[in-house]
Amino acid sequence: MTTQERLTISRESQLEDSGYKWGFTTDIEMEMAPKGVNADIVRLISEKKDEPEWMLEWRLKALEYWNGLQLQDAEPRWAKLRYPEIDYQDIYYYAAPKTLDDAPKSLDEVDPEMLETFDKLGIPLHERERLAGVAVDAVFDSVSVATTYADQLEERGIIFCSFTEAVQKHPELVQKYLGSVVPYTDNFFAALNSAVFSDGSFAYIPPGVRCPIELMTYFRINTEGTGQFERTLIVADEGAYVSYLEGCTAPIRRTSQLHAAVVELVSLDRGEIKYSTIQNWYPGTKDGQGGVYNFVTKRGITGNDAKISWTQVETGSAITWKYPSVILRGDNSVGEFYSVALANNYQQADTGTKMIHIGKNTKSTIVSKGISAGHGENTYRGGVKILPGAENATNHTQCDSLLVGDQCGAHTVPYIEVRNPTARLEHEASTSKVSDEQLFYLMARGISEEDAHYMIITGWSRDVIKELPFEFALEAGQLLKVSLEGAVG
Amino acid sequence: MLKIENLHAVVTDSEEEILKGIDLEVSPGEVHAIMGPNGSGKSTLANVLMGKPSYSVTDGDITVDGESIVELMPDARAHLGMFLAMQYPSEVPGVRPWQFLKAAKDAIDNANGQSKMSVRAFSKLFDEKVTETGINPDLIKRSLNEGFSGGEKKRNEMLQMQVLAPRIAIMDETDSGLDIDALQAVADGVNKMRSPDRSFVIVTHYQRLLHYVKPDVVHILVNGKIVETGGAPLAEKIEATGYRDYLTVR
Ligand SMILES: Nc1ncnc2c1ncn2[C@@H]1O[C@H](COP(=O)(O)OP(=O)(O)OP(=O)(O)O)[C@@H](O)[C@H]1O
Ligand SMILES: [Mg+2]
């Protein structure tokens, strides 16, 4: 099934409320722990997952650290985001489909209604052939349901499974790399995630292996008031290559939902990881009610001659707080960040990247495209840091803002710190509007006002979208269009 | 086919009147040339015909096949078979000429109850017209008009006109800034498209183009009004004497 077909399916479940096309909920029975976070909840989560002692210890240490931050009121407030105080004790930290205890061993055993939900989401689990080269490890409200293409990957020694499974089957790998890029002490949300993370994905590509397919995960947040805390760890061993896709949709919910994920990427010597995201979580209603609060810590670290490339298309969530970063530790390593972030209606996005140059001849590229529409507020926050040992480091930053209408805002906050005189940095920034001349030009050729806007905006975002794998790029274009509905025309 | 009656139009923002009562009738198959000094309102007329929102019609009417089009948005006018080759085509970053033109063709076909042209068939048509208009094939791999030279932009307008094959083609100084070969290509393009059911309104400053494309009617537009209408020889006269006579009369 192609991406376009998948989109058609998803679009059928249309809700007039905010024009959000992926809003539907399933009635699968949920098993829930009581609200709130404390050592007992953490133990319960760990126990449910049958985790080894070291994993529980790590979670508890993270919780202790987070409790300390809570006492100091250390929730970060530097971002240009406004949202009501989050009551962390009023959130469910664990929810699992009830049927999990007799865990599905194959697709045949998966709850049919869940399969149906995946169908709506467009993940054709029962149509593997037609999945055309994409393996899906779907996180459904915190528990991974099924992994496809496992055999193909196994042949090459590639591990791609849920995080929970990885803890069971590959504890040595998890223990070695977990927290090695984002330690639980990193920040408030990373600490919380480390304590209560429910599940997520794990991928390991052995030395010299090129992963033959794009690995793909879908995340969904389903239960009302459930915070989703997934944890992803991807390791490309020496000379390995992997392209990883993360796509998200979430059903409509009245109350705001907290999402605090952590993604760690480790690209060892000559390794390469390409990580692409489409984030389309519920942005709230047109007048700013509800929506997902997305606080994500994503970071990668490179070995010598290694590469990490982040590409993201962020159209969803009421609040986005997200800075996929690269620590360029190895000599000659490369870090890239390509981003399109859209804030429509009352959405607020504060996103960007950090490139930390440690190794010699390290090179980073940042292309950020922020689209603001309606009353949307879009902030690019980017840091480029050249440490003393980073001889001949180069950075190129291009940071463009596009305004649709005159009620929205675009802000650029670049931080630059250079501690080696051989560094070369370039920074380009622009702010533009969809011009009346462009619109007239397209419309005079017969293209509708809405499509003209859409064409101009996706064209403007092209430098980022072309970095996405082909099918994802199509989907991204569609998403921009859907997300802009109401803002134009 | 196209009829303009007592057309008055202002700049929407400032309400400054630019077109001060224009009458013009273009029958099927005719080629009309509009000449006039800089700032006389030629482009404004062309843009008002195409429905540019920065101008507002304050009086009079424009009809196509007897129906008023004054209330129609530019896209709806394109669906009726109108086309404007712009004097200053916009640059649209990241949008490929092929993609743009396919979207335009699909939109027009769709509005007229026709089925979408297949990608293959369209590509064939596109390539054919690229060759005919003599556009450098490298250009069409770039973003629409971005970094195109003045002449290249004009050729690109011709490419669009030939692919979309409008019934009423308005050309605003398409011949300005063209080298001899390009001018010849534009003229050939128009002549090839001339047919009993297609009309042209050609805004030009030069006799050059009209030498190749024989107009049926020539209008002189001065200060928002048509001050003289005649046959092809009128253009030759203008070439010789300029607009002095009209300007001093005023
Ligand atoms: N959007 C606008 N805002 C303000 N003034 C305008 C606008 N459009 C046109 N004008 C004015 O109207 C007059 C006619 O302009 P127009 O572009 O139609 O002239 P033209 O005959 O096409 O000239 P040229 O031969 O130089 O192309 C000029 O004085 C111009 O400054
Ligand atoms: Mg003009």
Write the layout of secondary structure elements.
The complex is a heterodimer of chains A (489) and B (250).
Chain A: H1 3-11, E1 30-32, H2 39-48, H3 53-71, E2 95-97, H4 112-121, E3 134-140, E4 143-147, H5 150-155, E5 159-162, H6 163-169, H7 171-177, H8 188-196, E6 201-205, E7 214-220, E8 231-236, E9 241-249, E10 257-259, E11 262-267, E12 272-280, E13 292-302, E14 307-314, E15 319-322, E16 325-328, E17 334-343, E18 348-357, E19 363-373, E20 377-386, E21 394-404, E22 409-418, E23 424-433, H9 436-443, H10 449-460, H11 462-465, H12 470-484
Chain B: E1 2-11, E2 17-26, E3 31-35, H1 42-50, E4 55-64, E5 67-68, H2 74-79, E6 82-85, H3 97-111, H4 119-133, H5 150-164, E7 168-172, H6 180-193, E8 199-203, H7 207-212, E9 217-222, E10 225-230, H8 232-241, H9 244-249
Parallel strand pairs in B: 3-8, 3-9, 6-7, 7-8
Antiparallel strand pairs in B: 1-2, 1-4, 4-5, 9-10
Adenosine-5'-triphosphate binds next to helix 1 of chain B.
Order of helices and strands of chain B: EEEHEEHEHHHEHEHEEHH
Biggest interface, chains and residue tallies: A-B, 24 and 35 residues
Unreliable segments of 5+ consecutive residues of chain B: none
Order of the strands making up the biggest sheet of chain B: 6-7-8-3-9-10
Helix content of chain A: 10-25%
How many structural domains are formed by the residues of chain B?
Answer: 1
Provide a count of the helices of chain A. 12
- State the CATH superfamily name of chain B: P-loop containing nucleotide triphosphate hydrolases
CATH architecture field of chain B: 3-Layer(aba) Sandwich
Strand fraction of chain B: 25-35%
Structural class of chain A: alpha/beta
What would you report as the Rg of chain B, rounded to the nearest angstrom? 18 Å
Describe the structure.
The complex is a heterodimer of chains A (about 500) and B (about 250). With about 500 residues, chain A is α/β, with parallel strands linked by helices. Chain A has one domain. Chain A is built from 12 helices and 23 strands. The longest helix of chain A has 19 residues, at about 55-70. Chain A starts with a helix and ends in a 5-residue tail after the last helix. The relative contact order of chain A is 0.10. Chain B is an alpha/beta fold. Chain B has a single domain, classed as Rossmann fold, CATH 3.40.50.300. Chain B is about 40% helix and about 25% strand. Chain B has helices spanning about 40-50, 75-80, 95-110, 120-135, 150-165, 180-195, 205-210, 230-240, 245-250; strands spanning about 1-10, 15-25, 30-35, 55-65, 65-70, 80-85, 170, 200-205, 215-220, 225-230. In chain B, the strands form 2 sheets. Chain B has a 6-stranded mixed sheet with strand order 6-7-8-3-9-10, with helices on both faces. A 4-stranded antiparallel sheet of chain B has the order 2-1-4-5. In chain B, a hairpin with a 2-residue loop joins strand 4 (about 55-65) and strand 5. In chain B, helix 5 (about 150-165) packs parallel to helix 6 (about 180-195). The interface of A and B includes residues 435, 440 and 460 of A. The structure holds adenosine-5'-triphosphate and magnesium ion (MG). The site of magnesium ion (MG) has 5 residues of chain B, from helix 1.
